Amino acid sequence: METGKLSQWRDTEGLSAEKGRELAARLELRARAGDEIAAREQYLDLLRLAPGERVLDVGCGSGVVTRAIARRVAPGGVAVGIDSSPALLAQARAHADAENFGGSIELRQGDCRRLPFADGAFDAVLAATVLAHVPDARRALEEMVRVTRPGGRVGVFDFDGDSFLIAHPDRELTRRIVAAHCDHSAVNGRLVRELPGIFAELGLVAVQARGFMPLERAAGSFYADLAARAGHTAAATGAITAEELARWQEALQATIAADRFVGGRLHLFVWGSRPAPR
């Protein structure tokens, strides 16, 4: 079965400026949630970023993580964000300029499977909620390891698509929607389960994994909107009928209006180090 055919993030190089603004706004909305802020701070702690370091943010999107990295490597360090989409990079630059980051952030266009950097160019390399949407993600991971210096750190923070929690009274239909959304809105919605093994195969040492479960309850929140989009994905792929979609969406909105909604998705942070020279 082909997976990821409805992913809006699979091929972003040709995004229009309007679509880039829409997707960037979605990323920024998610980034402002309390649980997202806490998770981001914790996984950046685990990556042990330090002032003066040069750190790469792969698939930087609107630059949320790039900006967080830049704060940690100051003074004297640089956060480099790379993305395939000029439209998203324009949004990342606008956000960085608005917060006066100046030369502490560099933005580059490029493919994560062919990173335009020399071997060992970075002290740490990170990809956050990116690689689940990338065909041949292993090649991107190989590149991330290549551009990390010996002794440097590599980390991936990504979601597990089958672990999408949606408070909804129709258990059976919700299960079908979550499965369809996992299969069709990401190239590999289960990639995080493979990462510890891939890291070890690529020669990283001290490989560890930690789970995070950002949750939201409000109407208009990222996960309330994602739940609604998941229903449409399931209908578009034939996993549910148009009648089932209408019934499910009506019950979802009633759950949200009654302040009974909770939504979120399991994420893993997997990290390790390149062996240091002896």
What is the gist of this entry?
With 278 residues, the protein is an alpha/beta fold. It is 41% helix and 23% strand. It has a domain at 17-160 and 187-214 and 269-273: Rossmann fold (3-Layer(aba) Sandwich).
List its salient traits:
9 helices; single chain; 278 residues; Rossmann fold; alpha/beta
Q: What is the CATH topology assignment of the domain at 17-160 and 187-214 and 269-273?
A: Rossmann fold
**How much beta, percentage-wise?**
15-25%
Based on DSSP secondary structure assignment, what is the total number of beta strands?
8
> Taking Cα atoms only, what radius of gyration do you get, to the nearest Å?
19 Å
Share of helix, binned: 40-55%
Number of helices: 9
**Which spans of ≥5 residues are poorly predicted at pLDDT below 50?**
none
Overall 3D geometry?
Answer: globular
Characterise the protein shown here.
This protein is α/β, with parallel strands linked by helices and 278 residues long. The protein has a domain at 17-160 and 187-214 and 269-273: Rossmann fold (3-Layer(aba) Sandwich), CATH 3.40.50. It has 9 helices and 8 strands. The protein has helices at 17-31, 34-46, 64-73, 86-98, 137-146, 171-184, 195-201, 222-236, 242-257; strands at residues 54-58, 78-83, 105-109, 122-128, 148-166, 205-212, 215-216, 263-273. Strands 1, 2, 3, 4, 5, 6, 7 and 8 form an 8-stranded mixed β-sheet that branches. Helix 3 (64-73) links the parallel strand 1 (54-58) and strand 2 (78-83). Helix 1 packs across helix 4 (86-98) and helix 8 packs antiparallel against helix 9. The longest helix is centred in the C-terminal third of the chain and has 16 residues, at 242-257. It is globular. It starts with 16 loop residues before the first helix and ends in a 5-residue tail after the last strand. The relative contact order is 0.16.
